[in-house]
């Protein structure tokens, strides 16, 4: 087993990486949020794939070909625009996932309550059970990741396989409902264009973009891949196509079985499945689907926890965060300190979010800002694609992964505009919000409140570097 440049063990092959990306990309419980708008949801998944995911994949293929080392999107931004912008990009990526990982844990628990039927149905509403269980699951997954991706990869692998099986079962249920009752929603050009007249419908494009985020994770764990330059492109293409098909197929199935107005009030995908299987008299299918959905959420959680923890690890190596974050476990060759810090931060969020209704309302606003935080690094990535490609051609006179620079520039423009639109749409108040001004103020304050510490920390660490109290450059690590 060889070690990566930072002393990390190279344990993932192409098959494992492909399943890792699928586990990270596909969150089936987000499908009802988009499907609830009606037939236009199918168009949105297609637009998100071609205008956001495909350009992002072009950026990842080009940039990982030039720099496949651990850190990915943080390293590319730093190379293109300097340490300050690299730090901001990495900070936004990391802090967003501090909130996102606990959400996935709650999904996992909610899915698991359907496995036991009526006997476990009330567990999801009991905070005295949910909070300790979420903390236990968080630290079990963290511990498995500390043991290494060679161990934790099985969570992602099982999660991805569970996702495929879940989608297949839901498709079968939707097809059965369609044969019995006909299509629950009219899917036609007229039906789609009628929905696009409501400007609030466009706000869901930001949700679609968020659900296509994750293809860059292969590069973030670059030093833990056996053959990063060879495997990242192939895994990204396969995972991307699979992700689009899974989202599209599952959305179509819900559209076939449930009127769009009812999808909008469904509390998660399993509530919709429960409604349909009861009508079809196949209620026995619900527990196995719930089990598979639990696997999907577990894989999703593990992939994002392990991937996002690599950002503070690499920033710790660069000494703009405490150097301890850049430590590698002497036995397991994993960024154990960064993983533990990630676990502590998410644990604090879980505990604070459970205190009371008023605190929960505050954190719901913070959760809405995660779309903005997640898409900020993507803006940087598309900008880095142009800057790094132009610099390489000018200084080195060489092409990269793509022979034609126009491919990279077109991807940067299309993907950048779609990302910017996703950020702007995130500020649109969802239907039902009466205090629009209050919503906007809280969203802006929430976003700035999470980014302001990054500015202060960077200035403080940079000042210490200039004073000679810390190394001004990353430590050179010998392979």
Summarize the structure.
With 479 residues, this protein is an all-alpha fold.
Quickly give the CATH architecture: Up-down Bundle
Total number of domains? 1
Question: Quaternary state, please?
Answer: single chain
What structural class should be given to the helix and strand makeup? mainly alpha
What is the helical fraction, as a range of percent? over 70%
Would you write up a description of this structure?
This protein is 71% helix and 0% strand. It has 479 residues and is mostly helical. The protein has one domain (14-466): Amino acid/polyamine transporter I (Up-down Bundle), CATH 1.20.1740.10.
How would you summarize the topology of this molecule?
Blueprint: H1 14-25, H2 31-35, H3 40-66, H4 73-81, H5 83-112, H6 127-146, H7 149-181, H8 189-195, H9 204-211, H10 217-220, H11 228-257, H12 260-263, H13 269-279, H14 286-317, H15 336-353, H16 357-368, H17 370-395, H18 405-425, H19 436-466
Helix pairs in contact: 1-7, 1-11, 1-14, 3-9, 3-11, 3-17, 3-18, 4-5, 4-17, 5-6, 5-14, 5-15, 5-17, 5-19, 6-7, 6-15, 7-11, 7-13, 7-14, 9-18, 14-15, 17-18
Structure keywords:
19 helices, mainly alpha, Amino acid/polyamine transporter I, single chain, 479 residues
